[in-house]
Amino acid sequence: MKLVPLVLATGAAAVLASTATAAAVSGLSCNLASAKSVKSALGITVGSPSVTKNATVTVCLFATMPGLLVRFETNETASLFALGRKSFGQHGEPTKTVNGLGTKAYSSTLAGGKSNTIVVLKNKTELLITANEPLAKLEALAKLILPSL
Q1: Cβ atoms within 10 A of the Cβ of 66, count?
Q2: Would the pTM of this model clear 0.90, i.e. be above it?
Q3: Does domain 2-148 sit in CATH 3.40.1000?
Q4: Fewer CB within 10 Å of terminal CB in the chain, N or C?
Q5: How many C-beta neighbours within 10 Å does residue 131 have?
Q6: Where is 89: in which H helix or E strand?
Q7: Average model confidence (pLDDT) for the chain?
Q8: pLDDT tens string 60-99
Q9: For the chain, which residues make up each domain, given as ranges?
């Protein structure tokens, strides 16, 4: 597992865990985080995201203020998910368990609640959302995306 720190334009830091497998990212695209879904959940208008695909990972970076990052990783296991959560703590980002989303989920809050991340495991796909929005709004966006995973 390779750990890559990511700093959004808003200053929010998130740790992105990525596996070294070369399995294709099939069926997952940034279309799952549509402008309509983002507007509905977060109340912000977004254009098309900058998309980065790397083996099993698809990153959708929306150029908004505040910034918004949606990340999908396929072939995720429960042990890799737990390792990813542990890495948040190792980078000074405390986590809390979130109930009612996917198989497992956790959140992390920084900057006095201004920068939030939610990470959800559903089947073998991990969904990570980071934004300077309240956790409740990130959970709402995750709930709109999860049925498609």
Answers
A1: 18
A2: no
A3: yes
A4: N
A5: 27
A6: helix 78-90
A7: 83
A8: 999 887 789 999 999 999 999 999 999 998 998 999 999 9
A9: 2-148
